[in-house]
């Protein structure tokens, strides 16, 4: 069968009435920017892109050179296209409006320009995560409050993994689809349509070094997985942890599994580790559209009302049945379930 490019796929989606012209163009612009980020990450140690930028972001995290480069690539690509009213990023305290000299569109774009950036210097997969919202009517200069929409209102979400292959995973709310970058042709090509995450799994991803800080229901759940076939779950479980959320989620999108970044005593005052607007919400949308589940351990992520652009939440996502078990244990511990 003839390969289907991202552009052909977007045309099909437009014909089917699932996206409008502005949104499909926006996705094409984001995908093109991510190709530039892939080129930058590929330069590695001889390209002068590794190491610290010597600056910090709003969240007090040291920025890598590639965090800054990726942020600039996405901002520049999206500034003049006419699809956006404003952008917001992990790397910027406030949203960036589209400059007055450029045409404005009806969309808001949020991104984590480089996810897993602590892995970049050791040549492990990193990625970009993005989410698209509608700009509220009548707002010409969107502020942070205009981005604070529930995950259920997302018009599109996606991520790109810069790994052995560069892969884009995308949803408009009608299934989750994967595109692989054909470097010779220079375009993303449809590699999997309507991805389905198996409901059951024997593989989990979590940073085990935080175990002693977790809440009791998380201790119970992981403890039972570790007990294997002699424990209450009656089977052995395997563990994988890349520490790049994009790569961990991509494994789950490919062969099933579950990913947890739960609350723990060290991060409790912050509300969690991962950020709702540009990490948890887009990943939850992608995973749900692939038949998986995504909760905070207590509530569906997509139903949360965000209160801050850089707000953090606990994240449980992946194969539905396992996410239900882990969430159930938390609700039982809270006394919400019998
Ligand atoms: O190593 P830790 O502290 O457990 O954190 C790992 C998590 O942090 C992240 O790297 C956060 O993303 P950024 O690199 O965009 O800040 C996730 O990708 C990953 O799951
Ligand atoms: Mg991240
Ligand atoms: Mg990041």
TrEMBL record:
Its EC number is 3.1.3.11. Mg(2+) 2 binds at residues 112, 115, 279. It catalyses: beta-D-fructose 1,6-bisphosphate + H2O = beta-D-fructose 6-phosphate + phosphate. It is an enzyme of class 3 (hydrolase). Keywords: Carbohydrate metabolism, Cytoplasm, Hydrolase, Magnesium, Metal-binding. Residues 6-191 form the Fructose-1-6-bisphosphatase class I N-terminal domain. Pfam families: FBPase, FBPase_C. Pathway: Carbohydrate biosynthesis. GO terms for cellular component: cytosol. Residues 197-329 form the Fructose-1-6-bisphosphatase class 1 C-terminal domain. Binds 2 magnesium ions per subunit. Substrate binds at residues 115-118, 207, 273. GO terms for molecular function: fructose 1,6-bisphosphate 1-phosphatase activity; magnesium ion binding. Its main location: cytoplasm. It comes from the Bacteria. It is found in: Cytoplasm. Its cofactor is Mg(2+). GO terms for biological process: fructose 1,6-bisphosphate metabolic process; fructose 6-phosphate metabolic process; fructose metabolic process; gluconeogenesis; sucrose biosynthetic process. Mg(2+) 1 binds at residues 90, 112, 114. Belongs to the FBPase class 1 family. Homotetramer. This is Fructose-1,6-bisphosphatase class 1.
